[in-house]
Amino acid sequence: EVQLLESGGGLVQPGGSLRLSCVASEFTLSDYVMSWVRQAPGKGPEWVSAVSSSSLGDITYYVDSVKGRFTISRDGSKNTLYLQLSSLKADDTAIYYCARGGRDSSRDGMDVWGPGTPVTVSS
Amino acid sequence: DVVMTQSPLSLPVTLGQPASISCRSSQSLVHSSGNTYLSWFQQRPGQSPRRLIYQVSNRDSGVPDRFRGSGSVSEFTLEISRVEAEDVGVYYCMQGTHWVYTFGQGTRLEI
């Protein structure tokens, strides 16, 4: 079954760091646009970051609010997507979802989502 | 960034009756490829979002045919022909044409 499973969330103090992981099953991550989407308590989803398919050169994209603080990456050998979070702020508190987007050059919306991993930034 | 504006934000409906959600974008969503990357998602309480519609009008596998997407350029609509109890949740439109991807504010469908 095609699926995604995130891990790595938790409680972290303001200014701290975390690394989120997302393991893919039954498909090859590098063939797709892969995104991280977060959802703060009681709010709608917010797209955070994406990496293009390898065929398009693994280009990375970020929403302005996380540029310079978050880094998306992918390990093809482990079929795993990562999101390195640093200089965390209270506003970063959310459930973080890993999601599969379009294949190759397609920009289709995300058709496979993980269950999410919660990140809480608090002292 | 492209702003996605949904209406209404709350949609009380009667079982068996139709429902309609509007989504407008601040820019054209027609990509240089010719495709229009507008998707609709459903989120039930406590669950991850689920894609229902992609590229304006294509239903995902397993999505009931009572769901229909339509529209073009910057105005889009999700229609449910006959609302069922399992349709309760929040619906979001999302554009993937322009980086950054952006979601609408959400429309809460309630019986």
Description:
The complex is a heterodimer of chains A (123) and B (111). Chain A is 0% helix and 51% strand. By secondary structure, chain A is mostly beta strands. In chain A, the strands form two sheets. In chain A, strands 2, 4, 5, 6, 9, 10 and 11 form a seven-stranded mixed sheet that branches. Chain A has a four-stranded antiparallel sheet with strand order 1-3-8-7, with no helix packed on it. In chain A, a hairpin with an 8-residue loop joins strand 9 and strand 10. Chain A starts with a strand and ends with a strand. By secondary structure, chain B is mainly β. Chain B has no helices and eleven strands. In chain B, strands 2, 4, 5, 6, 9, 10 and 11 form a seven-stranded mixed sheet that branches. Chain B is globular, with a radius of gyration of 13 Å. At the A-B interface, strand 5 and strand 9 of A face strand 4, strand 5, strand 9 and strand 10 of B.
**Number of β-strand runs of chain B:** 11
Mean pLDDT of chain A: 96
Structural class computed from helices and strand pairing of chain A: mainly beta
Count of DSSP E strands of chain A? 11
What is the largest interface, and how many residues per chain? Answer: A-B, 25 and 29 residues
Largest sheet of chain B: 7 strands, mixed
Q: H/E series of chain B, N to C?
A: EEEEEEEEEEE
Q: Beta fraction of the residues of chain B?
A: over 45%
- What distance separates the N and C termini of chain B? 34 Å
Q: Main β-sheet of chain A, in a few words?
A: 7 strands, mixed
**Distance separating the two termini of chain A:** 39 Å
Approximately how much helix is present in the residues of chain A?
A: under 10%
Structural class of chain B: mainly beta
